[in-house]
Amino acid sequence: MTSTGLGLPAVPTHIVWDESLLAYNFGSTHPMSPLRLDLTARLAKELGIFDLPQVTLGAPYVAEDRQLERIHDPAYVAAVREISRNPQTSNAPLGLGTEDDPAFEGMHEASARLVGGSLAAAEAVLSGRARHAVNFAGGMHHAFAGKAAGFCIYNDAAAAVARFLDAGYTRVLYIDVDAHHGDGTQSIFWNDPRVMTISIHETGISLFPGTGFANESGGPDAPGTAVNVALPPGTRDAGWLRAFHAVVPQLAAAFAPEIIISQHGCDGHRDDPLSNLRVSVDTQRQAALSISGLADQFCEGRWIATGGGGYNVASVVPRSWSLLLAVAANTRMPLTTPVPQPWREYVRERHGIDTPTEMGDGVDMWWRSWEVGYDPNDDIDRTVMATRREVFPLHGLDPWFD
C-alpha cells in the first residue's frame, strides 16, 4: 500500500461527485443551496484531494424505482414522480410541495441521483475497489419510507444501509452527527436488529424535528438498536466530544459492525443559522477521524460517509466536508492548512463572501472523558446518562462504568 506522504498508509477511497448533483435545488431562497456542494468540490480540488493516487472519482446515477422502493413505499415514489412532472401542485400529507420541500421540475430525478450516489459508494466498498467511500451530496436523513421532510425527498443513506443488508451483512452501524435528529433513517430501520442507528443531535425540545430522545431505543424485535443523544442548546466542542466518546465507541464495540455508514451534517457549527449548537470545524473533523478509527477497529476499514445538513454554505460547509474527504483518504490535513487563495478569491468575487484563511477554527480540542466521572449538575452529562441507562444494559454494558 502506498503512503499519503505524511507517513500514513493510503486508503483506497472512492469519492462520488458530478455537477449533475447540483440539480437538487429547491430554489434561490431555500437554505439547502446547491452552492455548498459546488464550493466543496472546488475546495477539495484546489487542496489536491481529488488528485491523490489513492482516490478515485465516480459519477452518481439516477436510482431505479426498484432501488428506491427497497426503502420507500411505491405509492410515495409515484407521488414524487407526479409532482416532479407537475411542480405547481402539492401533496402536503406526503410532505411534497411544502415550505421545507417545495416542488420543482425534475425533483424525482435529482433526488434519485443522490440515492444513486450513495449506492455507487456502497458498490465501491462491496466490490473491494475501495475501503472508504464518500457521497458528500447525500445524507438526506429526514426522508421517511412514505413521506418527505426537512429538505429530504429520498433517503440515500438508508438505501446504502439496505444495500449492505441485501448483500448479506447482518450488522450495519449508522452514525449521524448532524445537528438535527436522523429521524427518517431511524424510522426505516426501527425494528430491524441488523441495523444500529446512533444519532447525536440538538434536543428536539429546541430544534426540528422534535424527536430523538433517549427513550426512543428501537422496536420490539430490535431493542437497543436506536440510540439517541439529545444535546442541550449551546453545546460546544468539549461537551459534544465528551458525549460522542461516552456513547459511540462503547456501543460500536458491543455491536461489532461489519460496515459503518455515517452522516456528517455540519449544521452543528457555531456559525450555522439553523441550529443552536456551537461546535467547530475542528470537532466535525475529529468526529470523522473517530468514525474512521472505529471502521478500522471493527470493519476492516469499511466505511461510507455522506454529507447532510449545513447552511453556512461558503465559510463552513466546504471546509468541513473537504476535511471529511481528507480523513477518508487517510491524508491527515492539518487544521492549520491554509485555505487556497484562488478558492477564497473565487468565493469573494463570485459570491461576495470573505472566507476563513485556515481549514480549521483554531479551537481547544480537549474534552473531559467519561472516566473522569459523571456530574449530575451538568446538562450534557445528564443527557448522556439518560442514553446510557436506556441502551447500555441491552448490550450487556454498565451505564455507569463502561
Automatic annotation (TrEMBL):
On whether Membrane is a keyword of this UniProt record, the answer is no
Q: Which residues form the Histone deacetylase domain?
A: 30-326
Checking InterPro entries in the record gives: AcuC (IPR003085), HDACs (IPR000286), His_deacetylse_dom (IPR023801), His_deacetylse_dom_sf (IPR037138), Ureohydrolase_dom_sf (IPR023696)
Q: Which Pfam families match?
A: Hist_deacetyl
Q: Which UniProt keywords apply?
A: Acetoin catabolism
Pathway noted in the entry: Ketone degradation; acetoin degradation
Q: Into which family does the record put it? A: Belongs to the histone deacetylase family.
Name the UniProt record assigns to this protein: Acetoin utilization protein AcuC
- The record lists the organism as Arthrobacter koreensis
